[in-house]
Write the C-alpha cells for this entry.
Amino acid sequence: MSGVFVHDGRRSGHHSWATAAIAAGAAQGVFINPFASPRFSIPRYSRAADFAALATSAGGEVVFDAMTHARLLPGSNRTDLYDSWELWPGPEGDLSTPLRQQQHIERVFERQIELGTKKLTPTVNVTVPSAPDAFLAIELAELGKAIDPQAWQSIAGARTFWGSGSALDDHIGKLVALRSPTWIVTLTNEMVFENVPDISDHDAFEGLLRSVHSLSKRARVIVAFADYAGLLPVAAGADTVGAGWDRGMRFFDPSSFHVDSSPGIRIPASYVTQKSLSAVLRRDAAVAIETWNSTEALRLRGGTMPGSDQAERVHHLRTLSELVVSFSSIGDRSLRASAVSTHFENASRDFDRLILALRPIVREGDKSAWIAHHKKVLEKYIAAEGL
Amino acid sequence: MELVEASFMALGVENATPLTEGGQKWVFAAQLAGHDVVVKVVKLPDGPSANVVVERAHREVELLAAVDSPYVVKVLSDAVEVGDPPEAVAWVEERLEGVDLSRSLGAIWEEVEIFRLLSDIGHALQACHELDVVHRDLSPGNIRALPSGSFVLMDPGYAKHLRLAALTGVYQPGTAGYRSPEHVAGGSTSAASDIYCLGILAYYAATGSFPIDPSGPENEYDRRLLHSPAPDVTIARSDISTELALVINTCLNRQVARRYLDGSELLEALDLIGMKS
C-alpha cells in the first residue's frame, strides 16, 4: 500500500486526527514511536496499543519504530514515555556486545508483536560509512535478519553519510544483501530551524535517491520524516512517505527527543498546503493567492481552502498522498522520475508567477526552499542514472 | 620432499606426479582408490600461527565438502595434518579433464559459449553462496573448461583460506584483472564480488579485453576499480545481444546493490531470458 504514513506525535488529538485521516483516505498508515506514545495509558496519553487498534480498524498500516537511532543521539533525554517500553534488558543504550544487541532487538520485536505490527529492526544513526556506528548499524541489521528473516530494516544517516559517494554505495550494498522485504530510510538532521525542508546539500540528497533506487530494486522503501520532500525519494523508487502536521513529524528533528527548558515557538503561524507548488505556505499567503485569482488558488492548493487547522491537517496529508500514490504507480523508473520532474517544473513556473504578482508575500526564498533545490537534486539524480 | 611423501601416505594416494608448484603450495596428480585425483599440499608457517592455519583449513575443507554441485570441483578428503607437530595440511580433490579457462580466453567467444560460462559458473556460485562460501578469486586459472563444453569452478574458498591463514604473508586477494572493487584494500568481499569477477570473465570472453585495465602500478589499478565504471560491453562488442549485454553489464555494476547479489539472482536473470543451462 503506497501513500503517506503519519508520524507519531504528543499532541492530545494526535490519535484521533491520524485515525480520521486514514478513514478519510488522506493517509495510509501510522508510525508509532516510544517517544510519543506510551506503552500503558497515563494521564493525557492513551496507550499505543489502542492507537494501533484504531489505526488498523480504520484500514491503515501500523509501524512501531523503536527509534533507537534517536534514543542514542547526544542529548536525547525525552524519556518520560520512552521508558515505559523497557526496550533495554541490559544497560540502556548499551549495544557494545552481540548479546546486548540481541537483547535489544528481541525486546523491540516483542513489543512489535504485542502491538500486532511488522517487526522492524532498530538501527543507529550513521555519520559516515567508515565510522564505528556504520559497522554497528550493519551488525544490528544482520542480527535482526538472523532473528527473523522477514523483519523490516531501517537505515538512518546524517547528510555526511548520504553524501559519501562510493562509500555509501558499498554500505548500501552490504545491507541490500540482507534482502529485507521493506526498508525504512531516514535522513537525520542535526538541527531543524524552520518549518521548511533543507535540501541544499545536493550530494547528500542525490546519494539518498541513489540508495533508494538501489534498495527499491528488490524491496519496498518507505522514507521517514520526509513529508513533501519525500517526493524526491518517491521519484527514485520509494512508495510511502512519512509525514504529518508538526515540525517533528515532517522533519527528523533532534529536539523532538530532547527535553528543552525553553522550547521556543514550534507552531509560529497557521499554514495552508499548496499541492501544485509542493509547498506549505503561511495562511496569509494562501489568502493573498485566493484574492489574486481564486481559480488558480483552487488549482494550486489542490482543494478548497481549509477552514480550520484540522481541515488543513487532512488537506495536507490528502494532497501529499495523492501525489505519492500517483507517482509511485508508475513502474518505469524513467517515466516516474520524469513525472516528478514535470511536477517540479510546473511548480517552479507557478512560483515565478506568484512571486511576480504577490511579492513580497510570496518570495524567491519560498521557491528556493520548496522547489529550486528539489529540482536540482532530481536533475542530478536523473543525469547520473541515465534516466 | 619428505613432507610431500608423508602427505601422500596420510591421504592414501598413489602414483603422484607434480602438476604445479607455487609459494607454499604444491599440486599433484595422483590416484585414490583407482580414481584420478588431485592432491594439494600446503606447508604451514613456523610459529604459533600454524595452529590457526590448521584449524581454519579443517573448517574450510569441511565447508567445501558440503558443496554439492556438478559445477564445483569435489573435495574428496578432509584436510589432514602431516607431521607431528604438523608441518603441512593436505587434501584431495577430484581430477577434472579439460583445460584451464586461461587457454581459451584470448579468442572472441560466441554468445552461446558466454551464456554457458555464465550459467555453469552461476550454478557453481549458487552452490557456494548458499553455504556462505565466497570464492574471492574467480579467475581463469580457477575455472576448468571440460571437453563436454561445460565449466567447473575450482579452488572454491581457497582465497578465503589463504586470507584467514595468512599463508602468503602480505595477502592480496584475487588475481590482477579479475578483481572487484571490493577486493581493494579496505573493502569487504561478498557473494556479489564473485558476480563482478564472473562479469569480468564474460566481458573478456566477449571482447578479448578487460573492462577495467589492470596494467600499471597496483594503486592505479585499485583507483580505477574504485572509481571507474566498467564500460558497456556493447562498446567493445557491438554485435552482442541486448540480453547478454544486460547480464554482463549488471554483473559489472560498480554498485553492489545494482548487481546480481549472488549466484541465485544471476541464474534467475538467465532463466528469465531463457539462457540457463
Notes: Chain A has a mean pLDDT of 95. Residues 333-358 of chain A form the longest helix (26 residues).
